[in-house]
Amino acid sequence: MSSNSSKISVISSRIRGVARIWSILVWLLALILVVGTRNLPSGSSLDNTPYDILIPISLLISLIGLGIAWRWEGRGVLINLAFYFAITPIYWLLHREWIHISIMVGLSPVILPGILFAVSWILSKKKDS
Questions:
Q1: What HEC string does 7-74 produce?
Q2: Burial per residue of 89-119, b for 16 or more beta-carbon CB atoms within 10 angstroms, e otherwise
Q3: Cα–Cα distances in Å, from 65 out to 77, 88, 98, 127?
Q4: Percent of the chain scored above 90 by pLDDT?
Q5: What's the pTM value of the predicted model, to 2 decimals?
Q6: Residues 6+ apart with CB under 8 A from 1
Q7: Residue 40 burial by Cβ neighbours in a 10 Å radius (0-12, 13-18, 19+)
């Protein structure tokens, strides 16, 4: 039984390591995108409504969930997943149409480390029981 527990522990720590590396890459990509949108030419207009800021805020909170998952996996995963999936109803409320699946696929790098953190968390709970 100890051997099985140690295998689960090793697998869990490897998955957690991949999730941490991936979350760093996602944070760097988000930082690059924020800096890039700050440097738009002065004449360009995105024609956004004031409420369109809700989607980037939801993504930001989802990214914060990844940071929280480094210390508290369960809580961080919950925040990451909840705010990632909140994008769909927010988009519907703002635009009265469903978000295109290609946008959600494009945003999937934000959720994938959260899923890995969830798997690691589940495996660590399984090892403890």
A1: HHHHHHHHHHHHHHHHHHHHHHHHHHHHHHHHCCCCCCCCCCCHHHHHHHHHHHHHHHHHHHHCCCHH
A2: ebbeeeeeeebeeeebeeeeebbebbbbbbb
A3: 6, 18, 25, 24
A4: 42
A5: 0.80
A6: none
A7: exposed
